[in-house]
């Protein structure tokens, strides 16, 4: 059947270009020259020019092209990773699946015939526009056919029905049987792109892209192609159709503009080419801006992907200034935030270096605290991995930053003190070693006092047209809730290289329905890993004593979309790979990013991978009152969406203000990582633990993600904040967690806390925190324990700046 479609396309192209009547002044074909032979020659010349433009386009890419190349590449990589699993889940009993082969072939035949039919109708009625539409449709499909056959010759990917559906590249045996990319999808989308541009109306777009989407879905349903084959074919087809239309459409004939993927100089934001430092994750700015978003004053903020740069915060404030007329709460927050970002709001051209803050904090803990969330729990969470023990704990530090054109820097350092502690008993240490499947060779030892200078977020950054590359110690907050699963500031900042699209951008063309999006990619190094399993049998491990000579690396990718002002969703993943006996090579890197399954043996292990899906939604009818959000998390699977029963979930609500209590907000959420049947014997725990990296998803012993819920828990959190003014707040909160008895004998804790943040004359901040905790972990103590934490911090923000203009 498919060979007949090739013949049909070739026949339509031949009779179209060889007709001597096709001698219009359109740029698609030459003007009448008295020779019919000039027409096919021009057609072939156009195709040759198109091929040159298509194949050389990667060498003409600009920095701005990253705004669509990165998400397209990310989606492609994610689909290749998911292909085998998704294809295996197609049920042959579905009616659409049973007839999908017929549907896809019939749809392509209809499109080929329709392109030629448009030309003949135009010729019959003397309609130059119809004739051009037919010619360019055939020309675009011809170009797509040439390109797809070239790519198939190179990729030679197995089809879903070959070799167990693994979809391996360069294994098809014959280039004519290659699955990547889909020919049907590329031809359909190239034709649809031309027709949607020639007849720019919503109805044409729905019909053309709807038929192309149906054919594409049918190719996946018939198991002739993997999802990534169809996605790449569709994207390439659309771009080829756009290229043909842009190059050969006669401007004197009707039709739509093909647009551009780049902003003009007049459209560019003044801040777009300037580097900007990130706002620290413990800043008061985030709850203030989150509340403005919940109040409906800001519609473009991406809450599931933080930190934000200072320039991005200023951009959101500029957006907020247009929506404050009838919003008193928003106006109060806006006033304080504009003072904070005064430099950025003044516009571009300001270079500066500044001393941002000096601070000192004293924390007293009476009673035995919990300090190990990887095995039990933490009394203090999301505090950059700062050490604490029973007694008096001190922190004193500073932060400074600067920006000059495309370069910026930030440094935050502090001196930390925590008293010594007795540590756990040998019996507890043995149980921990057993639960982690580590060798029982680690003796219990007391915890030494901590007195050390330490850097927190400290990095340099380079901005290239809105893409910011930074290197140094950095923290990420990847989720909409109070304790995101994938990454938080609970652990010490990681040394990482990070590429961040700092402000939302919109995808071009047919992908624009996803709305504005933001994405970032990073590679970091974990520290404090002691054990890695170098054998194929769990439990046999390789140890180098107190620390490994080489620490594993962490790679990650997160993309958030905002299809509507009220709905945001994001997908993310991380991969832990490298380490002793598992060197980072091109092969292991490809496995970490693209493989969909686990492998055994040195050099074939893809590493420890995790995926998340999160969303937030402002509820209809209560848009400025109630926001619903969810964070979900799965280990070594494609996505929590496909594996809801193997995923951890964290639903929550945020109420921006209460009736007759406009200064009061409320947040409540629950989370669980305790899924029946998902615990590794004899211990381990499913989430945050791994059979290869036995110290798990931690940095210096602290969980990188949700430390409240931990590895095998069910937690509840709630807090309410009274905004006395924009920079004066009092917060009352509650935390609890119950750990499964199968994991280290189980246990639970309950916390109630009061937190206050007070600004004095906009330069001095007073922060106080008091918490009562009651916990019961039978392995640690046979009796229920309590502790009280009281903390007081003074921060001075002198904002000493040295400034100059470009």
Mean pLDDT equals 82
* Class of secondary structure makeup: alpha+beta
**Tally of contiguous helical segments:** 15
How far from one another are the termini? 65 Å
The helicity comes to 25-40%
Sheet-strand content, in percent, reads 25-35%
Describe the structure.
The chain is an alpha+beta fold and 806 residues long. 29% of the residues lie in helices and 28% in strands. The strands form four sheets. The protein has an 18-stranded antiparallel barrel. Strands 2-3 form a two-stranded antiparallel sheet. Strands 12-13 form a two-stranded antiparallel ribbon. The longest helix is centred in the first third of the chain and has 28 residues, at 128-155. It is globular, with a radius of gyration of 30 Å. The N and C termini lie far apart (65 Å).
Topology:
Blueprint (H helix, E strand, L loop, with lengths): L1 H16 L20 H19 L9 H23 L6 H4 L1 H26 L2 H28 L27 H16 L3 H20 L5 H22 L36 H10 L15 H11 L7 H13 L1 H4 L4 E17 L4 E2 L4 E2 L12 E14 L2 E12 L7 H10 L14 E6 L2 E7 L2 E8 L19 E8 L3 E2 L9 E10 L5 E2 L9 E2 L9 E12 L2 E11 L8 H9 L13 E11 L7 E10 L12 E8 L8 E9 L25 E2 L2 E2 L9 E13 L2 E12 L7 E14 L3 E13 L8 E12 L3 E6 L1
Antiparallel strand pairs: 1-4, 1-26, 1-27, 2-3, 4-5, 5-6, 5-7, 7-8, 8-9, 9-11, 10-11, 11-14, 12-13, 14-15, 15-16, 16-17, 17-18, 18-19, 19-22, 20-21, 22-23, 23-24, 24-25, 25-26
Helix pairs in contact: 1-5, 1-6, 2-6, 2-9, 3-9, 5-6, 5-7, 5-8, 6-7, 6-9, 7-8, 7-9, 8-9, 10-12
Index terms:
single chain; about 800 residues; globular
In short, what is this structure?
This protein is of the alpha+beta class. It is built from 15 helices and 27 strands.
């Amino acid at each position: 059947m498919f060979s007949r479609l090739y013949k049909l396309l070739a026949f339509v192209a031949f009779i179209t270009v060889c007709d001597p009547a096709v001698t219009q002044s359109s740029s698609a074909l030459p003007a009448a020259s008295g020779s019919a032979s000039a027409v096919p020659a021009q057609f072939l010349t156009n195709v040759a020019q198109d091929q040159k433009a298509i194949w050389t386009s990667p060498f003409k890419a600009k920095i701005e092209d990253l705004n669509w190349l990165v998400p397209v590449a990310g989606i492609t990589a994610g689909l290749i990773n998911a292909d085998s699993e998704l294809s295996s889940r197609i049920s042959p009993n579905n009616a659409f699946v049973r007839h999908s082969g017929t549907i896809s072939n019939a749809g392509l035949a209809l499109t080929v015939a329709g392109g030629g039919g448009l030309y003949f109708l135009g010729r019959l009625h003397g309609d130059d526009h119809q004739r051009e539409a037919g010619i360019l449709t055939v020309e675009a499909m011809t170009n797509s056919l040439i390109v797809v056959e070239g790519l198939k010759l190179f990729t030679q990917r197995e089809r879903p029905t070959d070799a167990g559906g693994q979809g391996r590249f360069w294994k098809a045996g014959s280039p004519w049987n290659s699955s990547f990319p889909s020919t049907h999808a590329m031809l359909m989308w190239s034709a649809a792109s031309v027709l949607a541009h020639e007849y720019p109306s919503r109805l044409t777009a729905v019909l053309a892209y709807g038929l192309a989407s149906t054919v594409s879905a049918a190719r996946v349903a018939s198991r002739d192609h993997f999802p990534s084959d169809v996605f790449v074919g569709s994207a390439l087809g659309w771009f080829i159709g756009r290229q043909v239309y842009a190059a050969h459409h006669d401007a004197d004939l009707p039709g739509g503009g093909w647009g551009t993927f780049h902003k003009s100089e007049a459209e560019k934001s003044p801040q777009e080419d300037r580097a900007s430092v990130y706002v620290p994750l413990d800043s008061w700015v985030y709850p203030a801006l989150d509340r403005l978003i919940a109040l409906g004053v800001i519609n473009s903020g991406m809450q599931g992907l933080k930190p934000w740069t200072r320039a991005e915060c200023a951009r959101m404030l500029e957006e907020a200034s247009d929506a404050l007329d009838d919003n008193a709460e928003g106006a109060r927050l806006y006033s304080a935030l504009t003072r904070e970002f005064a430099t950025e709001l003044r516009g571009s051209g300001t270079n500066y270096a500044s001393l941002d803050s000096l601070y000192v904090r004293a924390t007293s803990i009476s009673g035995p605290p919990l300090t190990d969330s990887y095995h039990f729990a933490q009394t203090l969470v999301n505090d950059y991995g700062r050490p604490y023990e029973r007694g008096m704990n001190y922190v004193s530090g500073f932060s400074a930053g600067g920006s000059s054109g495309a370069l910026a820097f930030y440094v935050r350092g502090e001196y930390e003190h925590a008293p010594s502690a007795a540590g756990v008993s040998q019996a507890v240490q043995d149980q921990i070693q057993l639960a982690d499947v580590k060798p029982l060779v680690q003796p219990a030892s007391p915890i030494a006092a901590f007195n050390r200078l330490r850097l927190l977020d400290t990095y340099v950054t380079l901005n290239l047209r809105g893409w910011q590359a930074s290197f140094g110690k950095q923290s990420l907050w990847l989720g909409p809730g109070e304790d995101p699963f994938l990454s938080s500031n609970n652990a010490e900042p990681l040394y990482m290289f990070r590429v961040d699209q700092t402000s939302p951008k919109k995808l071009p063309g047919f992908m624009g329905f996803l709305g504005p999006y933001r994405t970032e990619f990073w590679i970091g190094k974990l520290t404090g890993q002691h054990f890695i399993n170098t054998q194929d049998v769990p439990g046999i491990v390789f140890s180098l004593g107190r620390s490994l000579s080489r620490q594993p690396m962490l790679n990650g990718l997160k993309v958030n979309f905002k299809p509507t002002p009220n709905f945001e969703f994001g997908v993310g993943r991380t991969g832990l790979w490298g380490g002793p006996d598992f060197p980072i090579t091109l092969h292991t890197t490809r496995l970490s990013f693209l493989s969909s399954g686990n492998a055994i043996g040195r050099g074939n292990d893809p590493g420890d991978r995790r995926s998340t899906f999160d969303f937030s939604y402002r509820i209809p009818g209560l848009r400025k009152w109630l926001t619903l959000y969810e964070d979900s998390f799965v280990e070594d699977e494609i996505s929590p969406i496909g594996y809801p029963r193997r995923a951890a979930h964290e639903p929550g609500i945020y109420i921006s203000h209460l009736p007759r209590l406009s200064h009061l907000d409320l947040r409540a959420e629950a989370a669980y990582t305790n899924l029946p049947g998902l615990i590794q014997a004899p211990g381990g725990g499913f989430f945050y633990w791994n059979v290869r990296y036995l110290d798990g998803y931690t940095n210096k012993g602290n969980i990188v993600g949700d430390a409240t819920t931990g590895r095998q828990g069910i937690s509840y959190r709630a807090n309410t904040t009274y905004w006395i003014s924009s920079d004066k707040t009092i917060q009352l909160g509650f935390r609890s967690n119950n750990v499964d008895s199968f994991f280290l004998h189980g246990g639970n804790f309950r916390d109630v806390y009061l937190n206050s943040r007070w600004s004095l004359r906009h330069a001095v901040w007073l922060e106080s925190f008091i918490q009562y905790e009651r916990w019961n972990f039978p392995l640690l103590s046979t009796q229920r324990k309590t502790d009280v934490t009281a903390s007081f911090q003074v921060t001075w923000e002198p904002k000493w700046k040295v400034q100059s203009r470009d």
